[in-house]
Amino acid sequence: MRKVDPEKHAARRQVIVDAAIACFARKGFHGTSTAEICAEAGMSPGNLFHYFPTKHAIITAIVEEERQETAEFFRELHESPDLFAALLGFMDVVLGLAADPVYSSLALEIAAEAMRDEHIGELVAANDAELRAALSALIKAASGRGQIDAAIDPEAGARWIAAIIDGIFGRIAVDPGFKPDQERPMMHLLLTRFLCPKP
Amino acid sequence: MRKVDPEKHAARRQVIVDAAIACFARKGFHGTSTAEICAEAGMSPGNLFHYFPTKHAIITAIVEEERQETAEFFRELHESPDLFAALLGFMDVVLGLAADPVYSSLALEIAAEAMRDEHIGELVAANDAELRAALSALIKAASGRGQIDAAIDPEAGARWIAAIIDGIFGRIAVDPGFKPDQERPMMHLLLTRFLCPKP
DNA sequence: TATTTATTCGAGTAGTCAATCTAATAATTT
DNA sequence: AAATTATTAGATTGACTACTCGAATAAATA
Questions:
Q1: Each residue of A71-96: pLDDT tens digit?
Q2: CA distance, residue B34 to nearest chain A CA (Å)
Q3: Which parts of chain A have pLDDT scores under 50?
Q4: Fewest beta carbons within 10 Å, which of A29, A30, A60, B72?
């Protein structure tokens, strides 16, 4: 008999996911047909539905991919000697991602879909909880070293930093004058004033 | 002959717009069919398309309605003696709107659609420019009275306040622990530290 | 009252949708 | 080589789409 090669299988799925990301960023989840994804991936619908049972499952896979990427990023972050600089560095990365229109479109699309589809909503909420937990841990540690004002509750602070992240993607959508690479100083000012201990 | 009564005509359009808002908030622009809007509005498709030439035109009308509402709100704001308090007050209103899931869903949906549809994108960008101009004027005036740090460029400051507004709606979508009415103090702290002059 | 025209209805149109089915091919194991 | 099964294609399905059409009704003017 023949067995499924997990690596090839995963690689083929990735082709579909990447094609879907490109399409979804352009036209949204409900604006793109499975036929379009097939064309972008260079395969037949029969084949596409061999790897994913439904269109919805493709969306799910994209959200899961997002989760792994952010988790991986935070894994490296905690050993930094200057934790506040690490936080600013992370936010710089976010600003960099926002400069990519594909990433931004997708982020907004996922947020909008989270409000409509219960299942996607749960996945996205879990992702967000993970992000906030990492931010919160970072703030707590920095607070212990006197780098962040102890008056800021780590969880509440993380919540508003997450809001600022969301806001950055929102700017991309509606404000053509918002150029991520030029906004770094103002973002640093905002974060520093919000978080740093008063002299 | 008989002439079209503009008031009745407008009222009838409003029925459709309201129905569409309810549907769009639930399932998104591309997730709701015109038949669903008809059902929600209690009318036939023939009738609905008598008032709007396309589904797209209904979306346009919603964005326009949004514009008028924010413009109206700012018209009252400028005579306040305490301009910084006026700004905080406006942000409290935003937080109140965010507590309404219909309004939040729609805000996210519109932002996502702005990235896909060029026409909607332009309308939304114009709305946003108007909002930022109002915020910027407020900051400038408050800066003149010494209520806001003169080091903050009004336009840049307005841009990041707009980002925080976007972020609030983002939180609603992905963070079930974000309760608008409990987040007021932290939002005030964030804005105060960001904007107020150092002692 | 007669005429004009705005408003309303709902069946109908051409086309698109996600997903399925059948069948052929390719790769792996025995 | 034979058997098994993963992979692929592409035509097909029936439900659904935005929107139109022709006809009927209702209201307002002359």
A1: 998 888 877 889 999 999 999 999 99
A2: 15
A3: none
A4: B72
The arrangement of secondary structure in A62-195, i.e. its CATH architecture, is Orthogonal Bundle (1.10)
Q: Does domain B1-52 have CATH number 1.10.3720.10?
A: no
Q: Tell me: the pLDDT tens digits for B73-106?
A: 888 787 788 999 999 999 999 999 999 999 999 9
For B144-194, write each residue's pLDDT tens digit. 999 999 999 999 999 999 999 999 999 999 999 999 999 999 999 999 999
Q: How many CA atoms lie within 13 A of B162 on its CB side?
A: 29
The confidence score (pLDDT) of residue B97 equals 97
Q: Tokens in use for B195?
A: 């904007």
Distance CA A38, CA A15 (A): 10
Question: What fold is seen in the domain A1-53?
Answer: Arc Repressor Mutant, subunit A (1.10.10)
Query: Distance in angstroms, CA of B178 to C1' of C5?
Result: 54
Contact A133/B183 with Cβ under 8 angstroms? no
Q: Does A132 touch chain B (CB under 8 A)?
A: yes
Q: Is B1-52's fold the same as B58-195's?
A: no
Half-sphere exposure of B52 (CA within 13 A, CB side): 23
Are A169 and B171 a contacting pair at CB < 8 A? no
Q: How far apart are the first and last CA of chain B?
A: 72
Query: Is the CB of A45 less than 7 A from some atom of nucleic acid strand C?
Result: yes
Residue ranges of domains in chain B: 1-52, 58-195
Is there contact between A6 and strand C, defined as CB under 7 Å from any strand atom?
A: no
